[in-house]
Amino acid sequence: MSMAPVPIVFAFDQRVLRPAVVAINSLVDAAHEDTTYEIHILHPGFNGKIISAFTSILAQTRHRIIFHLVDPRQFDTLPKGRGSWTEIVYYRFLIPEVLKDHDRAIYSDIDVFFKDDLSTLMTLDMGNCPIGAVIGEVNSPNMQCHTYFPENASEYIYMSGFLLFDLTRMRQDDISARILATAREFRRRLKMYDLEALNLACPDIKSLPFDYCVLESIYESDSIKDADEFPWLSKAYKYSDLEKAKIKPTIIHYAGKLGKPWRRINVPYYYRQYLEDVPRALNKRTFRDMRKLLESIVKHKLSKKI
Known about the structure:
Layout: E1 6-11, H1 17-29, E2 37-43, H2 48-57, E3 64-69, H3 95-98, E4 104-108, E5 112-114, E6 131-138, E7 156-166, H4 167-173, H5 175-185, H6 193-201, E8 205-208, E9 214-215, H7 216-220, H8 230-236, H9 239-247, E10 251-253, H10 269-275, H11 287-305
Parallel strand pairs: 1-2, 1-4, 2-3, 6-8, 9-10
Antiparallel strand pairs: 4-7, 5-10, 6-7
């Protein structure tokens, strides 16, 4: 008996087409033989060439890709920034509305590399939690990575780059509207807009294992104690759990001082191989890509002189 397709959603614009291709190709390559992905792309407006190029990537596979145009003007009243913090950070909260025929779905950022299959999440017991996420830090006034909000009484701060949605419960409890309303309420205090609004609005979040968001610094370290994030991660996780996730990650997430791999001189070999296979129509570097690459080259040369 074949499994039902696993719906997974990405949201991005034309600035990050290259890493989006890597994320999707690695997702497909890591899928088990009996897993079929239904890949949904939320976007603010792709031309036909971009849509055709993404569609062609999956043309000879069992997987399917579906595009959903989002009107960015609906987020005009929400706080946002520049660079990576545009209104696209809120697109993930449209998923219950966009995927009306689904009871459960996965959301992922595109600055990731998939190493294993995600299908077991479709049957994970979420209890009464409408959302599942990976713990980022113990919530306290002494947090090292995240901003403390005294209004948030939850034990943990959860990362928002990989989310498991119980869409039925989210629709019943109007969770997305609550999150967006929270973003408006705290607009002057938010720095990590989607992450902070999510944590403030949702006290009941299901903890997902760290292997669904293994930070690159942890994955690449000789010893996880040497990773910049270890001081606060070690307060939320057992050492053995972090070590296990490092050895066998489900997803590698590119965040922190190392920068994004598609914008730097030292690209992990496995990621470089996927970048080399990006179709020409999607292999576009932005000005920011070039600037970050130049900064990476300069830092690399300076480190060689020390």
